[in-house]
Amino acid sequence: MAAEQDPEGRAAARPLLTDLYQATMALGYWRAGRARDAAEFELFFRRCPFGGAFALAAGLRDCVRFLRAFRLRDADVQFLASVLPPDTDPAFFEHLRALDCSEVTVRALPEGSLAFPGVPLLQVSGPLLVVQLLETPLLCLVSYASLVATNAARLRLIAGPEKRLLEMGLRRAQGPDGGLTASTYSYLGGFDSSSNVLAGQLRGVPVAGTLAHSFVTSFSGSELPPDPMLVPAAGEGPGVDLAAKAQVWLERVCAHLGLGVQEPHPGERAAFVAYALAFPRAFQGLLDSYSVRRSGLPNFLAVSLALGELGYRAVGVRLDSGDLLQQAQEIRQVFRTIAAQFQVPWLESVSIAVSNNIDEEALMQLAQEGSEVNVIGIGTSVVTCPQQPSLGCVYKLVAVGGQPRMKLTEDPEKQTLPGSKAAFRLLGSDGSPLMDVLQLAEEPVPRAGQELKVWPRGAQGLCTVRPAQVEPLLRLCLQRGQLCEPLPSLAESRALAQLSLSQLSPAHKRLQSLAQYQVGGCPPWCPALGSLTLPPTSPLLCSLQVALSERLQALVDSLRVGASP
């Protein structure tokens, strides 16, 4: 897929966006004659972020684009040759030049789906050397995207469905790639738009923005626009000097507000007139460059009423400092009284936008009942995810040559579940998720309406569930390098995310949720590995026996080394 024909492709990762040890392992696999062994990896996370009970799966679209374009260029291979041992067999580098993902198969949670600990976001199978090389890029593409989407979803849940959320964190993001990713996936998570123009061009994210204080303060009031005339919105009649018309309205507004006509800053008014001449159908005012009550508000009203006389409608104001909630209430009240005084009912509903380091706590205040805020701009708190900067995704080997593989480790939390798996979501009669279930791929598929024995993660025993619906979670996305179905658009994935969140129980939507969503396993395969008696032919039991035998042999060897002769 050529980047020239596909604007999104310009944002794709490259094969060498990886860790060096992926290349050293690739050489080891090749030297051992195992480069083409069939292998399967799973990408998942161990804990829900931000102390909550859910995450959103994101980044799949980027992963698919990366995989379909995966090819090491000559320059890539030459660089790897410079960092690997100088006596490396040249045939290895020829092998690298021929690599692509034409034998790679991917199953995945659809982008925008609810995701929970231990449930694979991606299952990646193919030649061992290739799927090993994919580890770091796939983690990079999925982890941050899912984290930002989840963070944005939490902010959307706080704000409620009526407030409009604008992501404006590009200048605070961790570099250009982080900025583009944050703008893309905050939209998927529930934001309405972004200030990031590149996200609009490459990803189709709706873009929005107004003006900065620098625009306002650049005017002194002595500037004369080259063409101060504005024709009526209907397009008929002579042009009108907007600045002169605004001056007339200023006197009337100040009289109503009990202000001297000299109090509003003339430079601010000149800036508003200049902006209105450029955007007569989308005029917005930034009110706090000098004083909201004594300058910004009366100047905005004067220009807005002048525009209104010509048939135009101002669309909004923005506040960027002070007590945003209280100021918004005061401004709305002024809008109402001015609307009644001058018979301009449209003024009552002019949008009020706020910004200024808004986090979850501040958003709760701005979203409360009775708030007059309509639009909330959030930057740092959405793009940097300050409560948790990483989702902690991992990419673990679960099978080689059709045989399960397991990592035991010294840390029980890092132990992996071996074997190729299927994943299902058990739903109640109202469509709400009850539990996710993992089982070996060859196990019988759970059926709706039938009693199911499940061992929830961390539980002391089995529980019985009778789901009204059973939903397979992992969809075949790529099969031997070929796209199995068209990728959903970003807007479609956003709609799926909002639908999924609407079906989640209130207990699992809480910002700090003590009620963790359950993920379990079906016997004979389950997360409580030591608590069940497995059939002798179980592939899981075979894998466990091999792993435990190796651990026991290592212990015996260590005792022998330490023993006296």
UniProtKB/TrEMBL annotation:
It is an enzyme of class 6 (ligase). Its cofactor is Mg(2+); Mn(2+). InterPro entries: Aldolase_TIM (IPR013785), N/Namide_PRibTrfase (IPR041525), NAPRTase_C (IPR041619), NAPRTase_N (IPR040727), Nic_PRibTrfase-Fam (IPR007229), Nic_PRibTrfase_pncB (IPR006405), Nicotinate_pribotase-like_C (IPR036068). Residues 421-519 form the Nicotinate phosphoribosyltransferase C-terminal domain. Residues 16-143 form the Nicotinate phosphoribosyltransferase N-terminal domain. Its main location: cytoplasm. Keywords: Cytoplasm, Glycosyltransferase, Ligase, Magnesium, Manganese, Metal-binding, Phosphoprotein, Pyridine nucleotide biosynthesis, Transferase. One of its GO terms (molecular function) is metal ion binding. Pfam families: NAPRTase, NAPRTase_C, NAPRTase_N. Its EC number is 6.3.4.21. One of its GO terms (biological process) is NAD+ biosynthetic process via the salvage pathway. It catalyses: 5-phospho-alpha-D-ribose 1-diphosphate + nicotinate + ATP + H2O = nicotinate beta-D-ribonucleotide + ADP + phosphate + diphosphate. Homodimer. This is Nicotinate phosphoribosyltransferase. It comes from Sapajus apella (Brown-capped capuchin). The gene is NAPRT.
